[in-house]
Specification:
It is found in: Cell membrane. The chain is an alpha+beta fold. It is built from eight helices and five strands.
Length: 223
């Protein structure tokens, strides 16, 4: 029979190392911190899994790259931020003004300028071109006058094909502008025939849209 002092010595102490579970609390704390760190890393990872650039890291989440209305409409970044003042207010019936990658285009329906199968400006056509003279004089770049036709062939003594017709119409517009005092050295006439259609030539409406004269105004280098 063991006495009381002997039993007390042999029995494990309630606070001994074998029963101490304080390490478990520390382990859970570390595990919680690791999970929190992992969640934060996931939240900071840019979409797509790639590395974010310096500009992306500094940009506020709500910031969106600026985009002009012309770019949103056409998907093409224009060369200039917007139309020059003299063109933004231009309202000539039958003349469509567009900003493009190469410059500003004045598009004129050829029915306003010429009779069918002809390359001589009508009285109405001369009036349309006259209404553009002032604004063209205020422009200091190059002017490319481009004639376009539909795909229906033409074969006459004067115009064996649409090439001759489109070129002759462009030349007629150039000569009229020359007669109004525009510097002919900064103008050129080009015929494209039916090689650059805007619409399908299968329907009359498409062919009508393709018969046109365009004045492409290119800004001088550094302008």
């Amino acid at each position: 029979m063991l006495d009381r002092d002997t039993r007390r010595t042999l029995e494990p102490s309630p606070s001994g190392d074998g029963d101490d579970e304080s390490w478990l609390t520390s382990y859970l704390d570390v595990l919680t911190l690791l999970i929190t760190l992992f969640v934060l890393l996931l939240a900071l990872t840019p979409p797509g899994g790639g590395e974010a650039s310096d500009s992306d890291q500094m940009r506020p989440p709500s910031a969106v790259p600026s985009m002009s209305l012309a770019t949103m409409a056409t998907g093409i970044q224009p060369r200039h931020d917007g139309l020059q003042p003299q063109f933004s207010g231009l309202t000539v019936p039958g003349v469509n003004v567009e900003q493009g990658r190469e410059g500003i285009t004045l598009r004129i329906d050829d029915s306003l300028l010429f009779s069918s199968g002809a390359a001589q400006l009508t009285a109405q056509g001369r009036g349309v071109i006259d209404s553009l003279v002032d604004v063209l004089e205020s422009f200091d770049g190059q002017i490319s006058i481009e004639g376009h036709t539909d795909s229906i062939p033409i074969s006459t003594v004067r115009f064996p094909s649409n090439w001759e017709l489109s070129a002759a119409r462009a030349i007629a517009v150039l000569r009229h502008l020359d007669s109004k005092g525009l510097d002919v050295s900064r103008m050129r006439a080009v015929g494209y025939a039916d090689t650059q259609p805007m619409e399908s030539n299968e329907m009359p409406e498409g062919r009508a849209a393709n018969r046109r004269v365009e004045l492409l105004l290119r800004q001088p280098v550094g302008g």
